[in-house]
Write a structure and sequence with these properties.
The complex is a heterodimer of chains A (434) and B (516). Chain A is α/β, with parallel strands linked by helices and 434 residues long. Chain A has twelve helices and 13 strands. In chain B, 52% of the residues lie in helices and 11% in strands. Chain B has 21 helices and nine strands. In chain B, the strands form three sheets. Chain B has a four-stranded mixed beta sheet with strand order 6-7-8-9. In chain B, strands 1-3-2 form a three-stranded mixed beta sheet. The relative contact order of chain B is 0.10. The chains are: A alpha/beta (434), B alpha/beta (516). Strand 3 of chain A pairs antiparallel with strand 4 of chain B, so a sheet runs across the interface.
């Protein structure tokens, strides 16, 4: 009789610790690999599983025979037609296939990192301690929801059933005469009046009439439905998180934006996208690139197209406005925008930008973040001052007027996360969407 | 004593299993195993686990208890990847050589599979573990689990005291030498009991705590330390250190000048575990062959007796044939010889030779041909052989023809392989010897020994690699492994490649040539 033990409820993932140790050991290399992938891959790919080659540094060396030395024998099954003395060309010289007796080495394998692991590695680079703690000032829509009854309210919300119940209870409690009682007395009076007079009758009639009067007085005093009986349906305004978010990525690709600037911009967009994606059911991204003219492009073009030209920032804002009008009604969508630029702009166009922002865009947007990418050498010059490029000065004006506008400067990858955090950690008063 | 499950006389009829059915089926199978095959087994402990837990078990080299190390995580990822991609199914079972014999059953299995696993593992492997001489002599089935329990706790404690990184460094180095960490020719001492180990450890820990080099007041005697004599001759020196020594881990554990007691204990743990698995590796074909032969025979008996239905038998046969599938060498699925297939075929061949021998068999196997007693013949083979000797003794010409074995000679200098022997009259002996040789673990792994160390001089550890048939060591791996040896030894290490036939020195590598 064997002993049976059901181990299914034992803790699973006994190897989790080992797996974590392995990841820790391989961390640096994995991080580099993930970063490279993200830099070359698509934005949305960050938030997915990744296959990663077995990193170096996780080899387990031991004394093994060199494959390319010495004389060996392989005993193999399945001879078809060989006779002793036959020669067989070695594979690897064009004939393909694996050589006999050698199995595929384990170190060739690529393993899959889960989303969480990818994000960990990715955010570690950005020094992101815990994304969940961030609070996006999310604008809520309200949906009325039945929540019991109230003694006050508008006539349309009267709950008849509940009102009548209260009325009935009150009538019983206050002993309001019923119709039947009145009817009975009236009937008896009628009978007495019709009958021939006998001695006790007038007395009886007087008593009955007095009673009837009393009852009617009582009925007048105790209303059938009293204002205190009335109950109204009560509605709570329950906040409903908006399910849709659209993120406008506006990037300056004019001649002055180099590879470094674009890389920083992209990292910022990736982070933002991840954040929104985790927060909302649906997130869309609209890519708008602009030189002296703006156009909506796909992701590929956004990051990799090398087309360049002069700078007219307002074109991007106009394009964004056009797209919102066309596809993203602001009562249905949470609209976010992030703009990255090196800030170069004509003074006249910067004026125009202020106009567009004040006039239209800031009303439609939940949030608009402007990131100016500056040279590392400029950080100590511009870091603390309000002076800056033409666009920076223009947007400073917008910043004063609109609380849902934020602007910041970044010079290195390490700046991105703190800036991101500052941009999104604040929680100003909730405003209703326009 | 078989209670019948239903009026039909079947042991079970559903695909679903429950503990009652498992127990009933085990009882029935065990009864047949003992009466039909005369098996002799440890008591069985069956554990039901999920597929996730099976993966976990895989990645800790199949043991229910194992210390923590990143390489197990790596193997887990590898196995999981294969499994998820559908490249490989999970084993249906896992069996541990312990007393009682622990068999893991996966909850996902159908009842038919559970029956198959019961026959395969709870009886086949179990019998083999209990009776094969290698397992009997080299492993201690009753002590292994308690030893692993101790190892796991000890290493965890070391991690707390000395940090994960320090422990990991020792484990990495010891793992690199696992292959060179077994006694091949003489039996290791039995595992001492937990109490004895505890005593030794306490003493070492006391010494560790109370030793302080500052308090050493005696001047070092001239040229004297534990090797004793003044300028001992090389021969004398080797004798004192019991050189040459093939078990590198053992040598380092006993003689390293830099290891602290806890580091020595970790090296020892790795060595003990390597030694425990050594017989397993020498008996793959036999062990799997035995289990496969047993399940095949038992399942057929169950079917013949009307205890399982045709549908169940069909499912069992389908799984059975997957297990014993052997693609030919030029098939893309070929990845070496399937030990299940070879083992089962050889054992069925022995059955055939002892009951219906041909003239050729009588020629080749005068002892067993036609003796009619295949049970005893197999029991004896299972008990007394390892893969190499089993193949050398029992691989028959008939089977070589069936498998269409041939030998490819592979000289690294030639652009071609050459077919040196095939399954014909002249080739049988060569194929049999060649195949047997390929299962000789001692011969198929690099022979590296500690040959000398001058403890009073440069303390360089001198290793020697006996090069057979011109097969050198893979260089990157060699250098990395030598670095690990240096970290355990504490001083430079050199490795000379010596041709085994001529004694000529082919090259010499020293850790001083290798960077960090």
């Amino acid at each position: 009789m064997p002993i049976f033990i059901d181990r299914r409820l034992n803790p699973k993932d006994k190897s989790l610790g080992n797996r974590q140790r392995f990841l820790r050991r391989a961390r640096e290399e994995l991080k580099r690999s993930i970063r490279d992938k993200i830099r070359t891959g698509r934005i949305a790919d960050v938030d997915s599983e990744h296959a990663v080659s077995m990193p170096r540094g996780t080899a387990e060396p031991s004394f093994t025979d060199a494959k390319d030395s010495g004389r060996r024998q392989h005993v193999l099954p399945g001879n078809k037609h060989f006779a002793p003395g036959d020669r067989v060309p070695k594979p690897g010289q064009g004939s393909g296939g694996s050589s006999p007796g050698k199995t595929v080495s384990e170190d060739d394998f690529r393993f899959v990192l889960s989303r969480e692991e990818v994000l960990d590695l990715f955010f570690e680079d950005l020094e992101l301690p815990d994304m969940v703690k961030l609070n996006l000032k999310e604008i809520l829509a309200f949906k009325p929801r039945r929540a019991g009854f109230a003694a006050t309210g508008s006539p349309t919300n009267i709950n008849v059933g509940r009102t009548m119940r209260h009325s009935h209870g009150r009538r019983i409690a206050l002993k309001r005469p019923k119709q039947e009682e009145l009817d009975a007395i009236a009937k008896e009076l009628a009978i007495l009046a019709a009958e021939p007079q006998n001695t006790g009758a007038p007395q009886r009639i007087a008593a009955l009439q007095e009673e009837l009067e009393r009852l009617e007085r009582r009925r007048r005093r105790i209303a059938y439905v009293d204002p205190v009986d009335i109950r109204f349906n009560r509605f709570d305004a329950q906040p409903v998180p908006n399910a849709n978010a659209v993120m406008f990525c506006l990037m300056d690709v004019s001649g002055s934006m180099g590879e470094r600037e674009k890389d920083l911009a992209k990292r910022f967009f990736v982070l933002l996208h991840l954040f929104l994606k985790r927060r909302y059911d649906r997130t869309e991204i609209v890519f708008v690139r602009h030189t002296h003219e703006a156009q909506e492009v796909d992701e590929e073009t956004f990051f990799y197209n090398t087309q360049s030209g002069g700078t007219v920032v307002s074109t991007a804002l106009e394009e964004m406005h056009r797209i919102i009008e066309e596809r993203y009604p602001s009562n249905e969508w949470n609209i976010y925008a992030a703009q990255a630029s090196d800030g170069d702009n004509f003074a006249t166009d910067s004026e125009r930008c202020i106009g567009l922002m004040d006039g239209q865009i800031m009303r439609l947007c939940q949030y608009f973040a402007y990131v100016e990418i500056i040279d590392e050498r400029e950080t100590h010059i511009f870091g603390a001052t309000e002076n800056g490029t033409s666009l920076w000065r223009a947007y400073s004006a917008v910043n004063l007027k609109w609380p849902n506008f934020e602007m910041s400067r970044i010079a290195t990858a390490a700046d991105i996360y703190p800036v991101f955090r500052r941009l999104f950690a604040r929680q100003p008063a909730v405003r209703k969407s326009a | 004593m078989v209670r019948q499950a239903s009026k039909s006389g079947l042991l079970f009829s559903d695909a679903d299993w429950d503990f009652k059915t498992l127990s009933r089926v085990h009882e029935a199978i065990e009864a047949i195993a003992i009466e039909e095959l005369h098996l002799d087994v440890y008591p069985v402990q069956m554990e039901i686990i999920s597929s996730q837990q099976m993966l976990d078990a895989y990645s800790s080299v199949g043991m229910p208890l194992m210390y923590r190390h990143w390489s197990f995580g790596k193997h887990f990822l590898y196995q999981e990847l294969l499994y998820r991609k559908g490249g490989r199914g999970l084993a249906y079972e896992l069996v541990i050589n312990s007393n009682p014999c622990i068999v893991y059953l996966m909850e996902e299995n159908t009842m038919a599979l559970q029956a198959l696993v019961t026959a395969h593992a709870a009886l086949g492997h179990n019998h083999f573990f209990k009776n094969n001489h290698l397992f009997r002599q080299w492993t201690d089935a009753s002590a292994i689990l308690s030893y692993l329990d101790f190892a796991k706790a000890y290493i965890a404690r070391c991690e707390e005291r000395h940090g994960v990184a320090a422990v990991e460094a020792i484990l990495d180095a010891a793992h690199a030498l696992m292959e060179q960490g077994v006694f091949r020719y003489h039996r290791p001492p039995k595992l001492s009991s937990e109490r004895q180990r505890e005593g030794v450890r306490e003493r070492l820990e006391y010494e560790e705590r109370s030793y302080n080099d500052l308090w050493r007041t005696l001047p070092p005697s001239k040229g004297g330390d534990n090797t004793g004599e003044k300028n001992p001759g090389v021969a004398e020196r080797k004798k004192t250190l019991k050189l040459p020594e093939e078990n590198l881990l053992y040598f380092l554990e006993k003689n390293s000048l830099v290891l602290e007691p806890w580091q020595r204990e970790i090296v020892r743990i790795v060595r003990v575990i390597a030694q425990y698995f050594y017989p397993q590796r020498q008996t793959q074909v036999m062990n799997e062959g035995c289990a496969t032969f047993v399940h095949y025979t038992l399942m057929n008996t169950l079917f013949d007796r009307g205890l399982i239905s045709e549908g169940v038998m069909l499912e069992i046969l389908r799984n059975h044939s997957n297990v014993v599938f052997q693609p030919a060498f030029d098939d893309p699925r070929f990845s070496g010889i399937n030990p299940y297939a070879l083992g089962l075929d050889m054992m069925q061949d022995i059955q055939r030779i002892s009951t219906e021998p041909t003239a050729e068999d009588r020629d080749w196997f005068p002892d067993i041909a036609g003796n009619g007693n295949w049970r005893e013949t197999l029991l004896e083979a299972w008990a007394n052989h390892r893969d190499e000797s089993f193949i050398r003794q029992y691989l028959s010409p008939a089977l070589m023809r069936k498998w269409r074995f041939f030998i490819l000679a592979d000289a690294a200098s030639e652009p071609h392989y050459e077919v040196s022997s095939i399954h014909n009259e002249r080739g049988y002996e060569k194929i049999r010897a060649g195949l047997a040789h390929s299962y000789d673990i001692g011969a198929s792994r690099p022979d590296i020994q500690v040959v000398d160390v001058d403890l009073l001089g440069d303390r360089q550890l001198r290793l020697e690699h006996k090069v057979k048939d011109g097969i050198m060591l893979e260089e990157a791996n060699r250098d990395a492994a030598m670095r690990h040896i240096r970290s355990l030894w504490g001083y430079e290490v050199s490795l000379a490649a010596i041709d085994a036939q001529t004694g000529e020195m082919l090259n010499e590598r020293s850790t001083s040539q290798i960077g960090e």
